[in-house]
Structure of Aspartate racemase:
Amino acid sequence: MAKPFLLGVLGGMGPLATLDFQQKLLDATPADSDQQQLPSVVWNVPQVADRQKALAGRGPSPLPQLLLGIEKLNQAGVSHIVIPCNTAHHWFDELSYASAAPLLHIVDATLEGLVALPQKPQRVGLVATQGTLDAGWYQRALAQKGMEVLLPTADELQQWFVPGCYAVKRGALREGGELLSLQAQALLARGAEQLLLACTEVPLALRTVAAPFLSLTHDPAQLLAQRCAEIWLEYRHSYFPHTQSNNWNK
Amino acid sequence: MAKPFLLGVLGGMGPLATLDFQQKLLDATPADSDQQQLPSVVWNVPQVADRQKALAGRGPSPLPQLLLGIEKLNQAGVSHIVIPCNTAHHWFDELSYASAAPLLHIVDATLEGLVALPQKPQRVGLVATQGTLDAGWYQRALAQKGMEVLLPTADELQQWFVPGCYAVKRGALREGGELLSLQAQALLARGAEQLLLACTEVPLALRTVAAPFLSLTHDPAQLLAQRCAEIWLEYRHSYFPHTQSNNWNK
């Protein structure tokens, strides 16, 4: 028998995005009872140095605190680890190297999800932190699959994205949603057909303002949750085939 | 310096109630940044034998799985543990005994919250599982504080409470909310002035049907979250007095 499935979530970046990701895991998992739901351990410790500031050279590295989370999740016996924070993927290689459990990359899950769409988007606007934009993961992956990418300008980031993102982190979801909505609309106005909301604070803020363009967006956190649910369902089906309706543990 | 504050949440019972509890922790914590939010580790493993069936003598005990969660949370370094499931408090003593970190009891937090109200309720209707009702914790604690308690009848539980509760567990929140709403209204009709929603599935289901009597209810999970937030704020204030606005980690 393979190592029992147990998802490790390296969260806290931010804590609300970590909750939103857990909701997405539930939504992505068909289940008739508690016992059929995906098991997880969530390290939701937000005392991690600011990722955006660290990458801008204006603050300490979050790596030591992220490594602590990876260590604790491994001790808890997790079989896989995910990080519901795009920017933190800057440290993905170091964290993978330190982890016995494999880490699933949010960009891989996103691209798998996008190419599986009935109509693959052609021109994708990327809503993300400067750190994620500088890393170039999404740009390279989208280009490889033949999709064109539109990026926020430095002015847009400073005026809308950054303050929107920090508004979410202090719980001002509506204010954040309004600012992030302006960022999203700017990309659409410049020709993006669809948007990739590649910062886990963004979708939850846009929801609160019921942004009219939400149907044109893709959410990497949701695509990552979907990938986790697929792995869990495969495991559940192999090892608990009798639990297809309400009789787990009976 | 005291052991660093880190809340352990023994969750999974059910997984949606565990999420709801985490949302309540966020709501109960004033914070200007990610870093000011309460740190937690959440063992959200729903593969725990059914508590209601175990207490009715119709299924295996969940104790071994609960003890595993307690062990893993302690290994992760938690300073306190809470269980956002009233029924699981049946095993509170065994779990406390096995845990280095103290467990906070949901009934204690609830009573502290109720007696601190400007107007203490006189006649309280108790919405809870048969297991919680049989245990008598809430009845004794409320009586000690001079409050009268009204209980659901066996018929009401069978007709409304139990199917409502299991509806929530399979994600049918609205259906659950309608059934649980009937249970709540029956208690109000028999003279309860206020209701104690002493099963963590209940408040989240009633919210979805926008039950008109919600202002008359008290939610033990919320009162427990409030208690946790108080402990965190005291710790944060003692050890991080400079983090009162947006400058943690700067």
